[in-house]
């Protein structure tokens, strides 16, 4: 073991990686965790564990009881739902469909040639900041960043002669750690604001937030997280990873005339495709626009959350075809299919992992253990009787911890909003501030939660560049981002609070 590896294994982060990587294979680990959930659910069900909270959707108090998987009904559920848990695992179809398109672009050489063309003489900090920024901005299109920006982040760093895992980590930090930040108002804003408004209304509070309630703060957050993410990448993560010694070796040779012609043709196809998609999405009455109840007008939010996947597939396939035909990589239909087939062959491990991850996440949801944990955490915070800024900080800590166990931002907020939004309102804290505190906590700890839906996919992408990468590698690498994002983002919120800066148009911090 050389000096660099010795240094990497030292300290807290080295300990996290060593311990994490000594855990069983991720597939086996998910099986063990699922078994633990089954046992805990049996104990919780036998003891009658339950919680009560106000359900904003129903407008009344709801009692949630732990459901045992060791009962006759629970055992039937495990067997009867196994296939649906797998096929309904949220990231599975998204990842596979997108990778079909990416596979064509990668197999033909389009991605490699594009990166060689774009990455010459790019300063290291600017490259890191660009990857983090692209990840943050990608959340305007829901989960697309997970399957497009993160693997591209690794390729971009590799193409620049840098460690691909550092690029993957920077992209993951932007996409997931900065999930709530953006320069634009997106579908997530509409969802969380609607949930909060429903919670307020159900509690008899005549107050309604707009979809732009957190916009000013989110714009500032985008700039802050981009800088922080780039600094963490360049000053901590990449030095700790050291020199890349894996099997992936990008081609640094200059592009040939045929390759340059291929890039030109691919760019022409890309521009034509972008224009067509723009016509379908943006003009009033366009085919991809539909009425958005949250906005009270037409928008493309429904398309962004549901229909964009096929658009991303074509975004890679069409330029990939143009490039492949030009350079002679694609000579017939068999060559076209071969590019997609090779991409799918590398996803075998992910498919196996997705089956067991889908079971674990479903068991956790079915047993109500996540809801019980969330409500119990909220009750604990309420019992401390904090007020003002200390209460907001306590809420951030509780929400960040709960986020480790429940990945969905909207699902957690549907549980926490009816508890905290009215409670903090009655303590003179504006709902806009409660919402932004939740979003800061919810985003910051995403990247270190093995129960995040996309965590198995991140692990598989990492193993493309480092076959020894395990859960410990991912968590120890991303922990620095999580800590830095949570700390600096919270400090930004404190500054916002102390100087009473509006969070959005007409959105104050206190009532």
Query: Can you give the helix content as a percent range?
Result: 55-70%
How many alpha or pi helices?
Answer: 21
Cα separation of the termini: 60 Å
Overall strand count:
4
H-E order: HHHEEHHHHHHHHHEEHHHHHHHHH
Structural class: mainly alpha
**Overall pLDDT:** 86
Strand content: under 5%
| Count of all domains | 1
Strand order of the largest sheet: 1-2
Radius of gyration: 24 Å
**Low-confidence regions:** none
What is the overall shape? globular
The main sheet comes to: 2 strands, antiparallel
SSE layout and pairings?
Elements: H1 3-8, H2 11-21, H3 26-46, E1 50-55, E2 60-65, H4 72-87, H5 90-108, H6 110-118, H7 124-137, H8 144-159, H9 164-177, H10 187-202, H11 215-241, H12 257-281, E3 290-292, E4 297-299, H13 301-327, H14 333-345, H15 348-366, H16 369-383, H17 388-402, H18 409-425, H19 431-444, H20 455-463, H21 471-498
Antiparallel strand pairs: 1-2, 3-4
Helix pairs in contact: 2-21, 3-15, 4-15, 5-8, 5-13, 5-14, 7-8, 7-9, 7-11, 8-9, 9-11, 9-21, 10-18, 11-21, 12-13, 16-17, 16-18, 17-19, 18-19, 19-21
